[in-house]
Specification:
The protein is of the alpha/beta class. It has three domains: 181 residues, 3-Layer(bba) Sandwich (FAD/NAD(P)-binding domain), CATH 3.50.50.60; 124 residues, FAD/NAD(P)-binding domain (3-Layer(bba) Sandwich), CATH 3.50.50; 80 residues, Enolase-like, domain 1, CATH 3.30.390.30. The protein contains eight helices and 29 strands. A hairpin with a 5-residue loop joins strand 22 and strand 23. Helix 1 packs parallel to helix 7. The longest helix is centred in the middle third of the chain and has 18 residues. It is globular and about 60 Å long. This is NADPH-dependent 2,4-dienoyl-CoA reductase/sulfur reductase-like enzyme. Its cofactor is FAD. It holds the Pfam family Reductase_C. Keywords: FAD, Flavoprotein, Oxidoreductase.
Length: 426
Amino acid sequence: MPTTPLQGHAVVVGAGLAGLRGAEAMRAAGFDGPLTILGDEPYRPYDRPPLSKHVLTGHLPADVTQLPSSLGDGVAWRLGVAATGLDRDRRIVRLADGGTLSYDALLIASGTRARPWVHDDEGRLPGVFSIRGRDDAAALRTALAAGPRHVAVIGAGFIGCEVAAVCRDLGLPVSLIDPSPSPLSRVIGRTVGDPIGEVHRSRGVDLRMNCEADRLEASDGRFSGVLLKDGTRIAADIAVVALGAVRNTEWLEGSGLSADAGGVDCDEHGFVIDGRGRPDPFIAAAGDVARFPHPLYGGRRVALEHWGHAVAQAEHVGRLLAGEDRGLPYAAVPNFWSTQGDMVVKSVGLTEGADAVAIVHGDPKERRFVAVYGRAGRCIAAVAVDSARWLPAYSRLIETAAPFPPDAPALDRPRKSLDIRDPGFA
């Protein structure tokens, strides 16, 4: 790999958090050449976490979420134009407006978009919303402020739970629909998902777990209700489809890079790899779209949709493209948080693949606790519900792959009384 400082033109595809922080890292590492940031939305980079919380409650207008930046005037912004193709031989990015951008270094940070409802015609009905961008949140805020009679949220992942909590904050009746046995159980298992579900139920959320939405029905051309697969109908005048995200990799088709719907593959440093597993020294990727081997998880390739990860990885590969950190792999411990009403859920590590979970602080019945996840006798993740101050101790255990169940100084219960069982991932 080249170790000389970056010369020529740097292009960033993706005007989001990862794209912005990656560009800033290039500048901080000494790159002072021409820099272009390309984004398919007409806005400068903005913060997404407030969209499903503060913007929906009306506490924060969608148009004041722009991220602060250290970038000065020496940046060319190409906004409202999507990338449609990549020619690596000629080092050219093709654009939706028919133009092209040549590059000497390329940062792929094209992110994700909301996964649409399975039936396109139903998903386009007035009254059906999703949340990914600023305009999505602004439109849904307007609809919620109008006082709908009932809101149906389809999908009990983090976004779905946050939206349901916002509806209750606004005093709106809401149903939360998911085929899993409890909210978030596909991500954090039932040991933690069940008590989180009880918190939502106690706040008045109509939980419809073990239920799958089949159709979105209409009356007079507008959304009017959700038909479940068991034949039950939930009348509602707003639907929020929260079925996860789709990674924006279609524009890389034909480029020779190893990329699919799960992300664009990178090596351990952050350079993207081609179909033969060879790294391209002129292209790196960061954020939601990047799939990379994580050393804490046996080199298993992961793609993460976490705010902190987008920042850390983007800063790493920005330095990488600028000519620094060429010998250092990316190994930051994943971390994530979610605010649902007055409940805060925070996590470190990755729960995927866990074969056991231990409640190490607090009590799920009191809805304040910490759970640590294990795999093959090692600590791999921890989740805190309204108990985040304990999390750093377990982050260190995860970083070192400490034995599971944990025997940490911060443990507030005897080792023999730990509640250890299958997390029940759906």
